[in-house]
């Protein structure tokens, strides 16, 4: 017990958790989870490959789509080892520094995805508002700078998280609420003052995900106004179809993310089940849905997929 009474104790490992109340079914739950990971990583990798190999798809909207697929692949690759360890192998231990590294990757890729969703909303706004100057406004060099800005912002904002956690003593318990490391979850295990962590975490959510979501809502509100102003019924229906697909994916990403961040800070005494469900939706289900919603609804990519996988007719 002497280590727990020390001034700055860091546990050698944390214990990850699965779904509360369904511990006996974890092995069977690992089967759909494994299928979802295969769909996510394989689906997003195929999308990246298709866009890279087809010059006709080297347009701004498809380049942003490949960036989204890359960030989704990063999120899935970050969570996959521990999730399958917990559900498939019942191995719950994760070394302290590995936990901090996984947390950094998860939050960085999530921040990148948020920024890319904003860029995609801006892309659709420009395409509808000023189609004649679309490729001029979103030139290749500008798209590259947007992608680098999303990466740099994600790394810069999330880099302080493990540093802030390493300064804290951990002397309560070492059981996390999720099957992966999540900053608010790790933070609540500390027995020192976490005021700085709470303030920085909340500021991070508001300044990145919060600001992004506000601008995305504004962009799609303007897009909807312009779409409803299209005189051609067929053109309006086509634009609305793309619009609805984008909105659904944005909602799938942002609603659970913001709700999870708030629950972790104000819902301390509630059931852990909402935390687990929403975090799994964000980090496991969203990367599965994005290649389906964005790509299968896109005629150009769908036609390339059909040529790749459909048997050739002689």
From TrEMBL:
CDD domains assigned: 7tmA_OR51-like (cd15222)
Residue ranges of the TM segments: 27-51, 143-165, 198-223, 243-266, 272-293
Gene Ontology terms, MF aspect: G protein-coupled receptor activity; olfactory receptor activity
SUPFAM superfamilies: Family A G protein-coupled receptor-like
Cellular localization per UniProt: Cell membrane; Membrane
Family statement drawn from the similarity comment of this UniProt entry: Belongs to the G-protein coupled receptor 1 family.
Protein's name according to its UniProt entry: Olfactory receptor
Source organism: Carlito syrichta (Philippine tarsier)
Record gene name: LOC103269322
């Amino acid at each position: 017990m002497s280590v727990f009474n020390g001034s700055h104790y860091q546990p050698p490992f944390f214990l990850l958790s699965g779904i509360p109340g369904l511990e006996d079914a974890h092995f069977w739950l690992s089967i759909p989870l494994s299928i979802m990971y295969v769909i996510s990583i394989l689906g997003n990798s195929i999308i990246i490959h298709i866009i890279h190999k087809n010059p006709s798809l080297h347009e701004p909207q498809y380049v942003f789509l490949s960036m989204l697929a890359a960030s989704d692949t990063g999120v899935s690759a970050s969570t996959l080892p521990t999730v399958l360890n917990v559900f498939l192998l019942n191995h719950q231990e994760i070394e302290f520094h590995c936990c901090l590294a996984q947390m950094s990757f998860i939050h960085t890729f999530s921040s990148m995805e948020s920024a890319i969703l904003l860029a995609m909303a801006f892309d659709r706004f420009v395409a509808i508002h000023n189609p004649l100057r679309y490729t001029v406004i979103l030139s290749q060099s500008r798209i590259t700078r947007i992608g680098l800005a999303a990466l740099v912002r994600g790394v810069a904002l999330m880099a302080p998280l493990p540093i802030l956690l390493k300064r804290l003593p951990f002397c309560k318990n070492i059981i996390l609420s999720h099957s992966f490391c999540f900053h608010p979850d790790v933070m609540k295990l500390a027995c020192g003052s976490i005021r700085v962590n709470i303030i920085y975490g909340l500021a991070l959510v508001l300044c990145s995900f919060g600001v992004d979501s506000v601008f995305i809502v504004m962009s799609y509100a303007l897009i909807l106004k312009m779409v409803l102003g299209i005189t051609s019924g067929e053109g309006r229906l086509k634009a609305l179809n793309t619009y609805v697909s984008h909105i659904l994916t944005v909602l799938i990403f942002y609603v659970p993310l913001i709700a999870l961040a708030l629950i972790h800070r104000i819902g301390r005494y509630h059931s852990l089940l909402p935390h687990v469900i929403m975090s799994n939706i964000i980090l496991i289900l969203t990367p599965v849905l994005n290649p389906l919603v964005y790509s299968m609804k896109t005629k150009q990519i769908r036609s390339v997929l059909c040529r790749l996988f459909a048997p050739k007719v002689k």
